[in-house]
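Researcher: Checking consistency across runs. Here is HD phosphohydrolase domain-containing protein again:
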Amino acid sequence: MENPDWQFEKVVGDPIHKYIRLDDLCWDVVDTEEFQRLRDLKQLGSAYYVFPGASHNRFEHSIGVSYLAGKTVERFKNRQPGLELTEGDVRCVRIAGLCHDIGHGPFSHVFDNEFIPRARPGVSWSHEEGSEMMLEYLVEENNIDLDAEDVRFIKALISGVPSHAEQRDGKRFLFDIVANKRNGIDVDKLDYLARDCHYLGEQAGYDGQRLLEFSEVRDDQVCYYHKEVYNIYELFNTRYSLFKRIYCHRVGKAIEYMITDALLAADPVLGISDAIGRPDQYKQLTDTVLRQIEFSKDEALASSRDIIRRIRQRNLYRFVCEYLIPPNWMTHLTKEKINENAIIDHQPSGSHLNKEDVIVEWAKLNYGSGDKNPVDSVKFYSKHDHHEAFHISKERVSLLVPERYQEVIIRVYTRDTNKVRLDEESFMV
């Protein structure tokens, strides 16, 4: 039954979902320092330096994910009463959508994929772990009305990997909504793809609203109407296309490496990497850390400031060359054979290349499941049989769907723009 007081609830306009209405508990979470910091984290990190339209933040994305998560679980609750979903289930799924990204660090994936592995070698850490840490801290610091069991459940929903204790009496399908580890189709992806396309001026090739409308729970997992199978292929192709052209843009990646180097140079002074275990410090860590370094007068931050100045003046690390590895060469070309040391060892005589001059990137671009077809892990249902869930092989969809689902590209960059030609010659030897 619809809430009779809906007209008095807080509503926000959104360019993707038009009008978003969240419950009071969600707004209690939104109105905290820990969540508000997401306003200062660009959704696409360094890509904003290449694509000026990509100015949106983790803040609005997280609200959008919460909206879609709540809409999805409420529809299951209303249309499939046999699932025995409770208001507590709905509440926790909404909060999981809202808080799934509160653990992101400065410039999003630059922080956990590039900076932390180099600043803290041997430490395994992800932004999902950061989100779990910040969720606990947020609830405690702000007296949010969630008990310990709810917090454990929400953390598991964020990670997408339930333990036996969080299964909620067989409701495994709840873990498919925010962070789907079965096949990657979740409301996080549906929001960020639509939102990124909007701000980049791109046209998405799939219909996310149809996917949600034609989803049901079968075999304790979220399944889709069989006629949506090609729509799902288009979803994954849109993801690949954005990675190929936007997220892994070679200039954007060069700036990523510059930001990483700047943070590493500043880390001994500012203790940036220490914050991953300190939520009270982590909540102060946003993209504004570059401004903090840039305006500092501390001489110990001089080298970091120099790198940031290069970014401001567009004196960027230079892309040298790239090589798309043919499938039959995958086992022959490895990181042990192609890396910074190997390039230095093969430099032309008298080149004077140093290891610090060279960056070698191994980029894996795929449909989200490595070299596997993610649609093989999706189950479908038919209007003729409302109980059976089944897979659909790609041969039954189209003869033009991909044969391969991952490509590996080796890229070389140089920190010294005067040595571009030398790097290219060393790589080609």
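Researcher: Does this match what you'd expect to see?
Model: One thing to look at in this run: Residues 177 and 186 are 5 Å apart (CA to CA).
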